[in-house]
Design brief:
The chain is of the alpha/beta class. The chain has helices spanning 4-15, 55-58, 67-79, 88-100, 113-128, 153-157, 168-171, 182-191, 217-227, 247-252, 278-281, 300-316, 319-337, 362-366, 370-382, 403-417; strands at residues 34-38, 41-44, 49-52, 106-110, 132-136, 174-177, 196-201, 231-235, 258-261, 272-276, 342-346, 349-353, 385-386, 395-396. It folds into 2 domains: 32-65 and 318-417, Aspartate Aminotransferase, domain 1 (Alpha-Beta Complex); 67-314, Aspartate Aminotransferase, domain 2 (3-Layer(aba) Sandwich), CATH 3.40.640. Helices cover 40% and strands 14% of the residues. The longest helix has 19 residues, at 319-337. The radius of gyration is 21 Å and the shape is globular. The two termini are 34 Å apart. Bound molecules: pyridoxal-5'-phosphate (PLP). Pyridoxal-5'-phosphate (PLP) binds next to helix 5.
Length: 421
């Protein structure tokens, strides 16, 4: 008999492209429809329980339905979900975020990571009067035209090198260079001298699994952009609040001109932001001529979830514990998977790459055996471990994960890999 997930998927495909609301959720033979989440666990529509390492692609640093977040959102809902006016909480959040990420001198709240990077690119172009942006091969910054050029994530999973529908003229304004290669970046900045508005990058590539910066790389990127008078835009949609309280820029001590945050910021509700140097943000409407607006920007429900999340993080300071649990899982998985496989981890991010060495860029990530990854994924899901459903994504831990979760997960992963122990 078909499971409820199977029959829902069959119905979904009739009315929705690929049966999903976002392509990263689709995988063969069918995605699992979830009905409930609590702490480190998800329950599907057939009543099966999973330990969750996808965590809504990294958004849920506190796990599912954290009591403080549920309480804050419930209280706000009772007072109204949307006023279409400024609210006190947005002022508090802007001040709080500046304390965590000092380079965010001023910021604009938006609703999604896509909107944040799209607006940051427009701001960079508007503030400099230049049109070209430089991005990294495999760097995913959401689904808008300027950055849908050799992006990772769902685009990589489904073999889409860019996207149809992006005008050639727009894509031609995006220069792509390999990650971890500062010489290639300098070359591109030389070739397009005087035309580049910004270099946009995830400091740690998170959308094709964590690909870590080699030592000194981010400092070299900073120097190259300064030498060429080009803005540096860190997309910390995944790394923000996750790899360090101050994001990757706090961890690696590199100060960008612009930053975008999303995912963890909203505590499970849609919220993102872009911001940075005060002088740059003065170009944003209504102060300046770079237009950007949104009905749901800084909505009270998301603000309540964000402030509650940051309060829990500030009090609990969970980063060392998260890193140590992730290390335990990564090491156990590496042992079970053996030398043909490399498990990479940073803070509470990890991924198993089916290739012998940790990849340093997108070309190396694409050398992974993604068929083996999908077999591993299906085996894990059958045993109650839910992973991000692609080789080209990252896995995450939350503060709700326990040492027992990790041991149980390792036991199940060893079974899937046919390893002893
Ligand atoms: C680095 C990065 N930038 C931008 C985005 C887009 O964010 P959203 O899905 O909220 O639009 C994502 C989402 O995966 C991301 O990981």
């Amino acid at each position: 008999m078909a499971s409820r997930s199977q029959s829902l998927y069959r119905r979904a495909r009739r009315r929705m492209p690929g049966g999903v609301s976002s392509p990263a959720r689709a995988f063969s033979p069918h995605p699992v429809y979830m009905a409930r989440g609590r702490g480190s666990h998800l329950w599907d529509v057939d009543g099966r329980r999973y330990t969750d390492y996808c965590l809504a692609f990294g958004a849920l640093l506190l796990g599912h339905s954290h009591p403080r977040v549920v309480e804050a959102v419930g209280e706000q809902m009772a007072r109204g979900s949307l006023y279409g006016t400024p609210v006190e909480d947005e002022v508090r959040l802007a001040e709080e975020v500046h304390r965590w990420v000092p380079s965010l001198e001023r910021l604009r709240l938006v609703t999604t990571g896509t909107e944040a990077t799209m607006s940051a690119v427009r701001l960079a172009r508007g503030a400099t009067g230049r049109e070209v942006i430089v991005k990294m091969d495999g760097g995913f910054h959401g689904s808008h035209g300027s950055v849908l050029v050799r992006a990772g994530s769902g685009a990589a999973t489904h073999g889409v090198p860019g996207s149809l529908g992006v005008p050639r003229g727009l894509a031609g304004l995006t220069e792509v260079v390999p990650y971890n290669d500062a010489d290639a970046l300098r070359g591109a900045l030389r070739r397009r001298r005087g035309r580049v508005a910004a270099v946009i990058l995830e400091p740690v590539l998170g959308n094709i699994g964590p690909v870590l910066p080699r030592e000194g790389y981010l400092q070299e990127v900073r120097e190259a952009t300064e030498d060429h008078g080009v803005l540096l835009n860190f997309v910390e949609v995944i790394t923000g609040f996750r790899v360090h309280p101050g994001g990757a820029q706090g961890l690696y001590h590199v100060k960008p001109d612009l930053t975008t945050l999303g995912k963890v910021l909203g505590g499970g509700l849609p919220l993102a932001l872009y911001g940075g140097r005060a002088d740059l943000l003065s170009h944003v409407s209504p102060e300046g001529g770079v237009y950007q607006a949104g009905t749901y920007s800084g909505n009270p429900l998301s603000l309540a979830a964000a402030l509650a999340t940051l309060r829990v993080l500030r009090r609990g300071r969970p980063w060392p514990r998260l890193a140590s649990l992730t290390r335990r899982l990564a090491r156990g998985l590496q042992e079970a998977a053996g030398p043909g496989t490399s498990v990479v981890h940073l803070g509470s991010m990890f991924q198993v790459f089916f290739r012998p060495r940790a990849p340093r860029d997108y070309t190396e990530v694409k050398e992974c055996d993604s068929t083996r990854y999908m077999e591993f994924l299906r085996g894990c899901i059958r045993r109650g471990v839910y992973l991000s459903p692609s080789q080209y994504e990252t896995q995450f831990l939350s503060t709700a994960h326990t040492p027992r979760d990790i041991e149980t997960t390792l036991h199940r992963m060893r079974e899937v890999l046919g390893a002893k122990g």
